[in-house]
## 1
Amino acid sequence: MLYPNLWRKWTSEQMRSPIPLGNLQVLSRLSNLKRIRLERISISSTFKNSIQVKSLRKLSLIRCSAEIGSANLSHAFPNLEEIYIKNGSFIKYGLLCPRLSGTLLRELCDLISLKKFILSGSDVLLRALPDEIGNLVNLEVLRLRSCLSKLPNSIKNLKKLNFLGIYNCRDFGELPECIGEMRSLRKIDLRSCRRLKKLPGSVLDLKQLEKVICDEDTESFWKSLLPSFRDRNQDIRIVIGPPPLR
């Protein structure tokens, strides 16, 4: 073979780059399709044509790229209950955006049937979730890994949320005061958020809270609140968890 090193380099780059996936119209005819997992796929080409899969309940996007403003997910999957995004890349005007666009996040927040939202990976960086996150009124589980610095006050609208997980978010410094209005929260997992220096007093209003997973750096914050929880006849279990996987 001529130029074997050049060939190996080209094929390696091709394997790492998301590829377009055509003829997605066939999905609309799969009336019993419940789950889709896409890996290294270009979302812009995948959803630029109008498709709709009303039966789909779970969508996993692994190392996919999305052109901002191109993925009409709420139309394509109107009954989606779970979405998992890991190590995604996001494109605007043909250029790679290291930060997840607010525009794309707002599109995800149109998926009002969502019950579980997982966002993970160092390629996805957020200053904050958009205010529209409060539109996901059916959300029960929210997991954010290596991607977040701030939660908006609209998080209080997630009245059905029972699990909040924030991991390896190095720039995440505080929980919003309004977190006390999230009365369905039963479990909070806050690990490897090194800028977190205190907890808002409103966490004492979380009457359904049962378990907190934290690390040694934040354990004292939660333990200092235990007497106040006990005065309200609320027994909170505090667990020091292992460092979450990156």
## 2
Amino acid sequence: MAVAVVGALTVTTTGGSVPRRLAPSTRSSFVTTLSSSKLGFCPVRVRNYENEPARKKLLVIRAARTESKGVSIGFRAPNFQLPEPLTGKTWTLEDFESYPALLVMFICNHCPFVKHLKKDIAKLSNFYMKKGLAVVAISSNSVATHPQDGPQLMAEEAKLYNYPFPYLYDETQDVAKDFGAVCTPEFFLFKRDGRRPFELVYHGQFDDSRPSNTVPVTGRDLSLAIDSVLSGQPVPSIQKPSVGCSIKWHPRKSS
């Protein structure tokens, strides 16, 4: 049964170790496939550092953490017109209107939180694109402060990781502002009922894994939401925010 989103219901986010409230009958086909190693995932080994030199214990990734926030369920996907550095093609929201659902991801090249998930983002996207999901990634970081996130290196990144989705460059940062994006990675999952515009149904994390913890990457949270949308089931209303690097805004020009 298809579920239409009515009005703008604000998502309740939780932090820390508070569990998500998930429908017990919903199981992610991506996670199921992942657990059988058909996508090339391997079990994560947790190393015991107790007997290793103290200097190795200090090798912890440190990065400023920013949480996704401020966008309400029911929010309509903004129009955009952005270039894809790899192919030179310009993409718009209209290019995805024939799909029942659209995943928009704000990512970049340099952020440790994105690097931690890059291969798995590509695998999850490839898995669900075969099931009818449209996917697009956008980089909005300022090249004035982070030249490693520029279009030429974006094209190399897309080729290196074999991204199955277009990786677009938001030079003006207007698209990031229109979406209300604040961090990388940040995930916006939209669904479309009939001729209605794309409406937001999920704005949360990939999963609980972080560069600084030993939680294995599974894509569980995002994949459960995608499975719900593609099967016509309600998406869980409690969604943990995505955590990542802040979007690097252009420096203010001095007057």
## 3
Amino acid sequence: MEEGKQGVMVAAQNPIAQLQAWFNNLQNGFRAWLAKQSLPAEAGVVTATSAAQGAAIGAFMGTLTNDATSAFPTPPPQANLNPQAMTSFKQAQALAGGPLVQARNFAVMTGVNAAISCVMKRIRGKEDRGCSIESMVAAFGSGAMFSLVSSMGGQNQTTNVISSGLFFSLAQGGIFQYRL
């Protein structure tokens, strides 16, 4: 206890606890405001904020790893490479980019995932806590968009988009089931 300016005893509070309380209050106010918005406005705000968070995470992750794209030099355009080898090469480049590439990839994955989850939650009127349907659908969308934005296509872009979406969805479903 410390003595205040006018002789009143004031309890000294932990500054970290004060910061956490302030942040929780701000977050709850933001969520309350967001719940009052229309579906397109809510989806847009959720997508933008999640994409910004994903970009920050991706940029940070990209700075932790060396830019491995130099290990995968771009083959000359006149090189006649096997199409499957070229697809594998593009997949390796998509996963080995520097901070800007990783920021873009993470922004797309987190933004699309959040947007789909937000829209599904609003349409269904509830959040899936005991079921992984919402998270798996959102993971499919983020995997499909990651495939498109990272240029992992190859000869058959549609097949790659679907297989990437299914992989992300199954991985998310497995993670969700493991948590239960």
